[in-house]
Design brief:
single chain, 0% strand, membrane, Ribonuclease G, transmembrane helix
């Protein structure tokens, strides 16, 4: 996608954790509204990953960045926040499944006694 005749430098392309984890808010903050498609149920499962892969390109095309260094500095904040959120989400999910497994095992063991 080459919007507004803006060429995307190779240094800009790559994964964006902010666009992946905070897709809707990231999209609004970067003036690119394709991440709003994450509001569509079922479709959003795939679109989260599309946002992560294409986010930097969309932000570059819609933004008014003077150079790649400035762009990367802005997106670095989004990337850090997104990565931290991803780690927290995975940790909470692991703890949840361990907790539920413990409860189910406890219930099953108590019914056999």
């Amino acid at each position: 996608m080459n919007e507004n005749g803006t060429n995307v430098p190779a240094e800009v392309k790559g994964w964006n954790w902010g666009a992946f984890m905070f897709n809707i808010f990231w999209g609004i903050g970067n003036k690119t509204y394709l991440p709003l498609l994450c509001l569509i149920p079922i479709f959003n499962i795939v679109w989260f990953f599309v946002c992560g892969f294409k986010g930097n390109e969309w932000a570059w095309q819609k933004g008014d960045y003077a150079d790649v260094k400035t762009f990367k500095a802005v997106q670095a904040t989004w990337n850090r926040a997104g990565l931290v959120q991803f780690i927290i989400t995975v940790a909470v999910m692991v703890l949840y499944f361990l907790f539920m497994g413990t409860i189910i095992t406890s219930i099953l063991n108590s019914t056999h006694n």
